[in-house]
Amino acid sequence: MPDGTPETTRDALVIFTPSGKRGRFAVGTPVLTAARQLGVDLDSVCGGRGICSKCQITPGYGEFPKHGLTVAADALSEWNAVEDRYKRIRGLIEGRRLGCQARILRDVVIDVPPESQVHRQVIRKSAAQRDIAMDPATRTFYVEVAEPDMHEPSGDLQRLRDALRQQWQIDGVEIDLPLLRHLQPVLRKGDWKVTVAVHREHRGPPRITGLWPGFFEGRICGLAIDLGSTTIAAHLCDLADGAVLASSGLMNPQIRFGEDLMSRVSYAMMNPGGAAEMTRAVREAIDSLARSIADEAKVDPRHILEVTFVMNPVMHHLLLGIDPVELGQAPFALATGESLSLAAADLGLVSIGEAARVYVLPLIAGHVGADCAAVALSEEPDKSDDLVLIVDVGTNAEILLGNRSRVLACSSPTGPAFEGAQISSGQRAAPGAIERVEIDPVTKEPRFRVIGCDLWSTDPGFAAATAATGVTGICGSGIIEVIAEMRLAGLLDAGGLIGSAEQTGSPRCIPEGRTHAYLLHDGSADNGPVITVTQGDIRAIQLAKSALYAGARLLMDEMGADRVDRVVLAGAFGAHISPRHALVLGMIPDVPLDRVFSAGNAAGTGARIALLNVASRAAIEAGVRRIHKVETAIEPRFQEHFVAANAIPHATDPFPNLRALVTLPEVSFNVRPGPDSEGGGRRRRRG
Amino acid sequence: MPDGTPETTRDALVIFTPSGKRGRFAVGTPVLTAARQLGVDLDSVCGGRGICSKCQITPGYGEFPKHGLTVAADALSEWNAVEDRYKRIRGLIEGRRLGCQARILRDVVIDVPPESQVHRQVIRKSAAQRDIAMDPATRTFYVEVAEPDMHEPSGDLQRLRDALRQQWQIDGVEIDLPLLRHLQPVLRKGDWKVTVAVHREHRGPPRITGLWPGFFEGRICGLAIDLGSTTIAAHLCDLADGAVLASSGLMNPQIRFGEDLMSRVSYAMMNPGGAAEMTRAVREAIDSLARSIADEAKVDPRHILEVTFVMNPVMHHLLLGIDPVELGQAPFALATGESLSLAAADLGLVSIGEAARVYVLPLIAGHVGADCAAVALSEEPDKSDDLVLIVDVGTNAEILLGNRSRVLACSSPTGPAFEGAQISSGQRAAPGAIERVEIDPVTKEPRFRVIGCDLWSTDPGFAAATAATGVTGICGSGIIEVIAEMRLAGLLDAGGLIGSAEQTGSPRCIPEGRTHAYLLHDGSADNGPVITVTQGDIRAIQLAKSALYAGARLLMDEMGADRVDRVVLAGAFGAHISPRHALVLGMIPDVPLDRVFSAGNAAGTGARIALLNVASRAAIEAGVRRIHKVETAIEPRFQEHFVAANAIPHATDPFPNLRALVTLPEVSFNVRPGPDSEGGGRRRRRG
Q1: Residues of chain B contacting residue A323, judged by C-beta atoms under 8 Å apart
Q2: Chain A positions touching chain B (beta carbons under 8 Å)
Q3: Selected residue of A159, A162, A184 to mutate for chain B interface (largest B Cβ count, 10 A)
């Protein structure tokens, strides 16, 4: 502003909402220009050429007492031909203007709607979940490139670099060979106007990862992948607005080399080339998952320009092509635990963008993976005022305990029982699987619900409603419930023994070798399975839940805490488990029932946060360095806790909250099972 | 040194030669430590552990009047067990000590022999060539890595990084996935002691490119590759001392897609996938060349950790997998001309080190390649006091003209005639090819020499000596000589016409259609070829040499010079050409004969300089930006010069130096050849 002389006709005040940023600008300044100079978050891909419409704004007219301002109807320049054409062809919400076309004439209040903000929030569906602030590593930019000049020879890439520097202040971009191949034809096809996708991370140079002639109208996408031992889950997200376009999953094909992590490590140790074989299998599966999820969302897989991965250390090493043998033995040394930024092509992801980038979240320790880091990113224990225990149950359980002052992590070898494996009638969660169980404490008669049907088994019409799938087995959450219900119904004692028909008064307690089993469902009349809960099933779940509890308890010891304030159950399993039954079983420390939360697939959410918000990558890298790792395998107290946690509920700590919630029958069935009986109980019987 | 009190027994003066660096050190300081602190160029791979012996030094004893010093016999600590063991097992030159073992006790003069200097000079064989100062991007470092600790979990890579930072002050090294795969087994095999090769360039992070358990005794190597349209030439160099371990060449397999650059560009334009086909062919050839050259030098090809490339723009684009179509038409736009630093694997070089790096020298313009940049790097016109013209003759001629104040460059389309193509009896340089010719000016009888035999054709025993190969044709340098000799013998007039037998008085001038040919050799009696120089051959060479001269002349115009001080002939052809004959032909501007030099394969030398001296990479990148490019294709004066240069010698400029050297017969054979005769003359005749 010139030297003190008030020249009210020469500039005007602009106030942007919701940011509140304000400034005076010369009359005639485009709104987009003013926004940029004030650092207002107003999107633009075309750089103000009236092509992209990303800079839509809503001018406010009339009285703004809060700002002490009255905005005149002619505060902005008149609706112009570019806006007219845009509205006619693409449509524009009433009251909206294009920020690059509307010029400031008088004092004005300008609202930037969420869709026009680069850093808008992605609102998540559940109240328990936090929003994601959009700040993607990859964004598109429209540029006009100088044509080649024989008298001043310079490469097309150099002129594109110059354009990016001059038009977008992006300096020193690099480009990988596969994309460089397309540069010349794309520039000519677009008549020297192109849209480039530029990837800018918290480290390394900016990179061109996509290239289209003219203004690119399509979406650019990213994949957030949670690579589990059993399933590979992926979310396909729009990198501009963060929308989840599709979510899809696939069995991890490595299962054929071993159900759990350690059997895959063994496979690699015993078979020359075994690790490479598993690497190939998982890479091909991920590549095909990328194709199918893009297909589902009707997106060109080539427009997937970024992928983030979360996974446990064994999956991590196998994906990268590193033999996981060291992870199978003390001291469980990782080849590398730091985050990685790679070309997707280096991981054999050939169906997506040729120059797509991969970000692999950091690992925490040899047993505590990037999946756990992703849970920490999603659930933020380090920002919790109360002491929160976060449990991500998979084949291994990842456990985090902490608050603002300190976060601890460990991994506990729960085995696959919680996923329905090693259970006589166990199965994966799929239509027909029993997922909810109630047992009447008086009659000892059960009722249950299966996945895919809202009726209870005792409701009329259940048989008809489940005719298509039948009742096929019990999934992980179902097995937790049935065992807890058996305990509550007095069919099971605190030591985990199933009583006989005589002891329990229920004819459903049938002999099974030298022990007993509880008959949950007899489908033999319809050629269906006879579904029982055997003594072996109880033992398998006892081992798994003891490992989980012992891990949590070890972290509490380390923290010097004898109780936690809050429990968060993460993972697909955590989302389906009934907190009440988990407490009865003694899987988790005793807390009030309303202090148990489900975070859904927190690891997957962490992958999605890392995908959509580049600042979160640096944050989790720093966060992981601050997490204190506890190694369960070398901690003698783990074994002590493990043994003490065997009882149902555990015998380790008092459980006042549980006692207030339920009555635990004082039963005891002192029939010691014979040494061979459990094995027999593991086999599934059919009628 | 403590507060002013002279404590002569506490420290000692050390003077290093040849650097002259000096300093005082506490008694007991190892010589290596003193050298490092003073910045003396004393090599060490093991970091002072007495393993590598790279830090050998020669202490001087007695009087050093120049330094005013008398060195006592006990100036260094006694010969120790490590040195003893080293000498016993590996041998150590008398008088040498290991710098890491010998400790400074009294004032001493220490000589660092050339072999112990990292930055030693590689002495080149010819006096005309400059030495190369060793400063390789890739060096080996021996490190001791901390073992993993379950209580402080960290990846093996993180601990290796820590070791490199602590032991070698190398921070933030990166490692590519293929090498990361080997990290864990190598660390364990070496019992946590490893040798790593680290690549540090003038940009980008340092990278681990090699990894060996324990102390690596072998050589690490680099390949300098001159990728020509016709031949691929490679030098295999030791990256520690710069020695050329082997040199080898291979035909460029792209020849089957087109003899010259433009026919390859056409092939790419006319055949879908044609560019990719040529890319594949040349990459495979280079990979196999790497294997065979390593084999020749008895080096493991996996120990080749770096490759530098120089090449013309079309070869450049095809190697990188970029369609060269834009290089075939104005404005001859490059996809990119800047230097490139790549993973060798990205170019399909799979036989060399898995993490080997490639450096591609910058291009100058669409027609002026990295080969020309390499010539500039080798011949340094920008450091020349006099005005030097550098000509690199291949299928295209790359021409540089300049001095300290300014350097110009252009490319001139000479075509393949200088390489023996398009010549009726032309052939590549190979045993049996005529390379030297003399014609008696009186008898008009020729004598010649062939490659592989030191005798002249008129010497007794010539037939026997060449029986194995025969006389097969004329190579490039031979055709220059025979045409110049024909001109000197009066068989050819200034316009390029061959006289008849009557006009010249030589029965060797035989009719050939409506023109004449000169019979150089009749091998028909032995079933060999009849070798003639036809009117068509003369025309082909006239076109080629006119293009070359016109290019040089254009640069002289641009420089405002009517003469040059010095001519450097580069390239394989330049090495074999006779300066006298080149002057007679009018290929190059008129200079005194002793101001014409051959630089040998200057492009290959440039590739080798870039390989061995990393600072040269930044230098040539900056140098290329300063070179002014002249585009012959759009310069009308090029065409004028081209026409005027047709005469033998050219009719453009006076040639006092040539006139002082030879007498040019004033003959004129005014028989205009018919329109169809030249074509006939191009075909090779056999007896």
Answers
A1: 181, 184-185
A2: 147-151, 153-158, 176-178, 180-181, 183-185, 320-323, 325-326, 330-338, 342, 346, 363-366, 629, 631, 633-634
A3: A184
Interchain CB distance below 8 Å, A150 and B342:
no
Which range marks the domain in which residue B619 is found?
A: 373-416+541-651
User: Are B398 and B465 in the same domain?
Assistant: no
pLDDT of residue B282: 97
Q: Are residues A432 and A523 in the same domain?
A: yes
B62 Cβ neighbours under 8 A, 6+ residues apart: B70, B71
Q: Are residues A208 and A228 in the same domain?
A: no
Count CB pairs under 8 A between chains A and B: 136
Q: Which of B153, B335, B634 is opposite residue A150, by nearest beta carbon? A: B634
User: Rounded distance, CA B599 to CA B524, Å?
Assistant: 39
B269 pLDDT band, cuts 50/70/90, is: very high
In angstroms, rounded to a whole number, what is the distance separating the alpha carbons of residues B674 and A54? 71
Do residues A347 and A241 both lie within one domain?
A: yes
Q: Which pLDDT value is given to residue A634?
A: 79
Closest CA to A391 of A557, A584, A588, A540: A588
Q: Per-residue pLDDT tens for B21-79?
A: 999 999 999 999 999 999 998 998 888 888 888 899 999 999 998 888 899 999 999 99
Residue B592 lies in a domain: yes
A148 vs B150, B333, B629: nearest CB: B333
Amino acid B394: pLDDT: 72
pLDDT for res B125: 52
The chain B residues in contact with chain A (CB within 8 A) are 147-151, 153-158, 176-178, 180-181, 183-185, 320-323, 325-326, 330-338, 342, 346, 363-366, 629, 631, 633-634
pTM of the model as a whole: 0.84
Question: Which of B145, B162, B181 has the most A C-beta neighbours within 10 Å, making it the best mutation to test the interface with A?
Answer: B181
Domain count, chain A: 5
With beta carbons less than 8 A apart as the criterion, state whether B364 and B628 touch.
no
Task: Please tell me the distance from the alpha carbon of residue B231 to that of residue B144, in angstroms, as a whole number.
Answer: 45
Does B545 share its domain with B412?
yes
List CB contacts (< 8 A) between B634 and chain A. 150-151
Pair B430, B452 in one domain: yes
Contacts of A332 in chain B (CB under 8 A): 148, 150, 153
- pLDDT by residue (tens digit) across A31-49? 999 999 999 999 988 888 8
User: What residues of B are in contact with residue A325 (Cβ under 8 Å)?
Assistant: 184
Query: Do A127 and A112 belong together in one domain?
Result: no
Regions of chain A where pLDDT drops below 70: 1-9, 123-130, 671-687
CB burial of residue B666 (10 Å; 0-12, 13-18, 19+): exposed
Distance of residue B45 Cα from the nearest chain A Cα, in angstroms: 24
pLDDT value of position B123:
59
- Contacts A331 to B, Cβ<8 Å: 147-150, 153
How many Å apart are CA A565 and CA A556, to the nearest integer? 12
Picking from A184, A335, A346, the nearest residue to B155 by CB comes out as A335
Residue A680: what pLDDT?
39
Alpha carbon separation from A355 to A207, A505, B246, B275 (Å, rounded): 9, 68, 37, 20
* pLDDT interval class at B338 (50, 70, 90): very high
Q: Is the pLDDT of residue B128 over 50?
A: no
- Residues in chain B within 8 Å Cβ distance of A366: 150, 153
Q: Are residues B638 and B556 in the same domain?
A: yes
Indicate yes or no: CB of B337 within 8 angstroms of CB of A154. Answer: yes
**The pLDDT of residue A128:** 46
Q: Is A597 within the bounds of a domain?
A: yes
- Distances in Å between the alpha carbon of B90 and those of B28, B51, B97, B342? 26, 11, 13, 38
The ipTM is 0.83
Q: Is the pLDDT of residue B576 over 60?
A: yes
Task: Write the DSSP string, B451-500.
Answer: TT--S-TTSTTHHHHTTTT---EE-HHHHHHHHHHHHHTTSB-TTSPBPP
Q: Which residues of A touch B365 (CB under 8 A)?
A: 153
